[in-house]
Amino acid sequence: MPFVALFAAVLLLGIADSMVNSYIVLFGADVVGLTPLQLGVWASVFALGGIAIGWWLGRLFDRRPTRAYGIAVILLGSAGYVLLPGVSSFLVLLLMAATVLGAMGAAFPQLFALARAVLGEGAAGQRSAPVLRSAWSLAWAVGPLLGALVLSRGGYSWLMWTAAAVFLASALTVLLVPRPGPPDAVVNAAPGGTPVLLTVSVTLFFTAMFAGGLALPLFVTRGLHQQPASIGVLFSVCAAVEVVATLGLTVLPARVGQRALILGGFAAFVFYYALTVVSSGMPMLLIGQGFRGVGIAIVAAAGIRYFQDLLAPETGRATTLFANACTAGLLVSGILAGLAVEHLGYRTTLLLCGVTAALGGVVFILGTRRRTGSLPAEEAHDSVRA
Fold first, then answer.
1. In this structure, how many other beta carbons lie within 10 angstroms of the beta carbon of residue 182?
2. What are the Cα distances from residue 277, in Å, to 188, 269, 348?
């Protein structure tokens, strides 16, 4: 079945991605000897490379849907991680981040665009995003543990090489997906929305997510004096809830509007930060992680579907736009979170993350206002492009 192959490809891609990205900063610092500033620059080049390559391939996919783009970027990333353990030059690392390694940033949106193109614009195609997103969440629940096991046995070289092999397996799995045909005619009314404002809202959400992910471990271990192992427990609970919530999206009745659902995701995320800020121990932190998992599941999965419906039939452009908004959030969150923690403290930083998520919800409301009644899909799409 095409969907089984797509699910397996996303799962393998996520496992490899989480194996290396959980420890890539430590590799740069401990093995290559990069300074904190160099690590920040390296991470920024990673993000910028992914955004640029992803945008370019997204446009190409809309002109000619094909599996080749996804396979190519995954293979480039696999080759890059094979070579990475032998690189010690900062300039070479930057070049790799902008090209072969940065290309991996385009793999995620390419697979989601491929799923929509292969499965069509019907119910199967529209419900593919939540299920595939659950595969990504599941991968991030197990990948870091596998990475830790390989790292403890063989060091960073074997970690990179193992991830490269998993990337290769993902690329080969994509070959099992049927070749996509021409885009289906859009028969459903497109949701209302302004792409620029929607992109800003999603960027704010992911900025809050990534910044909070940096501040939370420091708050829990230094502010609340919990054991470092408690961080793993919290993130595992979040990942488990995220998988369940994402799968739950596939069985929601059609009468549940996507706009209201996504706003609920923003609200759940704001509530998570509110609970965390007032927490004094693990029980309330664990409850907060439940709301965090629900918020991420809804915005990440339903958000992709909303963008695809809004810009249909330009699936590649829509999925890449959403993925690049996520990457942009990562790009700006590190420096902002570091400055906030240093100058304002842990609780205030987490509070600001909640405010940022709330602001993202407000922008989403503004960006999804319909100026007129429902339009036929072709007319709605033309108005968006204009």
1. 9
2. 42, 13, 8
Of 120-129, 265-274, 370-379, least confident by mean pLDDT is 370-379
- The CA distance from 288 to 282, in Å, is 10
Contact criterion met (CB below 8 Å) for 347 and 219: yes
Examine residue 313 and say whether the peptide bond preceding it is cis (omega within 30 degrees of 0). Answer: yes
Spacing of C-alpha 357 from chain mean position: 16
Three-class DSSP category at 269 = helix
Residue-level pLDDT at 385? 37
**CB environment 306-324: b (16+ within 10 A), e (fewer):** bbbbbbbbbbbbbbbbbbb
pLDDT at site 232: 72
Asked if pLDDT for residue 386 goes beyond 50, the answer is no
Q: Which of 127-136, 287-296, 303-312 has the lowest mean pLDDT?
A: 127-136
Instruction: Give residues with Cβ within 8 angstroms of 252, minimum separation 6.
Output: 261
Q: Is 218 exposed, middle or buried (0-12, 13-18, 19+ CB in 10 A)?
A: middle
Planar angle of CA 21, 349, 51, nearest 5 degrees = 40
Q: Which residue has the tokens 């799995």?
A: 173
pLDDT level of residue 122 (50, 70, 90 thresholds): low
Tokens of 318: 């829509």
- Output the CA angle 101-293-27, nearest 5 degrees: 30
Q: Is 314 helix (H, G, I), strand (E, B) or coil?
A: coil
- Region of 225 on the Ramachandran plot (φ > 0 left; ψ -120 to 50 alpha; else beta): left
Torsional sign, CA 162, 3, 128, 374? positive
d(CA 294, CA 292): 5
